[in-house]
Design a protein that fits this description.
single chain, mainly beta, 5 strands, about 50% strand, structural constituent of ribosome, rRNA-binding, RNA-binding, rRNA binding, Small ribosomal subunit protein uS17c
């Protein structure tokens, strides 16, 4: 088997990730290209993968019932959303109060 490239869709397991691999094939009857997605479980030794990462998988010996792939490298890291920190009372005291315009 040859290496495949896909997107990490789950990393909730220890040392394991689920990777979705898309492929296009030509449908002869409809004369269109159709996209199919396959999900593979892969071994991630150091738990480095996050959801949304683009990874390359290499085939390996069976590691468990469903794991036959190993994460070879992370091609592109996902941009992870970090919520803004809550404002502290010290931050609020530093701001100057601007009076609202009065409508008269």
């Amino acid at each position: 088997m040859k290496p495949v490239v896909g997107m990490v869709v789950s990393n909730k397991m220890q040392k394991s990730v689920v990777v979705a691999v898309d492929r296009l094939f030509h449908h002869k009857l409809y004369n269109r290209y159709v996209k199919r997605t396959s999900k593979f479980m892969a071994h991630d030794e150091h738990n480095q993968c996050n959801i949304g990462d683009r990874v390359r998988l290499d085939p390996s010996r069976p590691l468990s019932k469903h794991k036959h792939w190993v994460v070879a490298e992370i091609l592109k890291k996902a941009r992870i959303y970090v919520p803004p920190s809550a404002t502290t009372p010290a931050d609020l005291s530093n701001k100057t109060d601007v009076p609202a315009p009065s409508s008269s």
